[in-house]
Amino acid sequence: xxxxxxxxxxxxxxxxxxxxxxxxxxxxxxxxxxxxxxxxxxxxxxxxxxxxxxxxxxxxxxxxxxxxxxxxxxxxxxxxxxxxxxxxxxxxxxxxxxxxxxxxxxxxxxxxxxxxxxxxxxxxxxxxxxxxxxxxxxxxxxxxxxxxxxxxxxxxxxxxxxxxxxxxxxxxxxxxxxxxxxxxxxxxxxxxxxxxxxxxxxxxxxxxxxxxxxxxxxxxxxxxxxxxxxxxxxxxxxxxxxxxxxxxxxxxxxxxxxxxxxxxxxxxxxxxxxxxxxxxxxxxxx
Length: 286
Prior knowledge:
By secondary structure, the chain is of the alpha+beta class. The chain is built from 11 helices and 8 strands.
């Protein structure tokens, strides 16, 4: 049995076209009715001369019908569709924001209130940064609280000070010398290790070679991402994004974290800054 073909006329007349045609027919009818009312009211007959109030009413009714049809036509063909498009655009943006899990966008990376909110009750903390010395000092008291929790776990992924390409790339970006950058990384590494307390959280430090195009901090089911700037010098404006689990942004951070973990090397707590070891050895020899 062959399938019955769809009528060509039905395919070429979508719902929007049919609606427009129906409205145009209705608006045109109202417009013509208004014109007719004006025509009737304008006739010079004995009936209208003896009923001036009714004649005035007929003329006003005609004018009202004409103006109403014109305004409704403008609203239907221009205003309503523009409004509908705006509503749909807002709904689409809202849906995309919800799907991404985005909770906040700011240009203030060091906003204390945002970090306080993220640290509240956190047990699993992952940090991916070049050295995060300023951030660690700013949140030292909060980090100590996390480190004191027996169920806590802190993992820090720092730039690999032994990887020369990484040091050259990052030192150029931060406007410093590779040796100074290495010193900051080692100082941060040792500073995080000092958070360890008996019976508290596990604190692990890793070195990851490669450039950084952004930094992120994962707090249980919440994450904060911030961009690195490419011009030299410090700036108070750093785009910062907060997202939560269940959204595409958090999933992106989670996937990145897994890949970084696989490509990182753990740092032994006994491993010290080579420069510090050299200085200590020279002091002993003297």
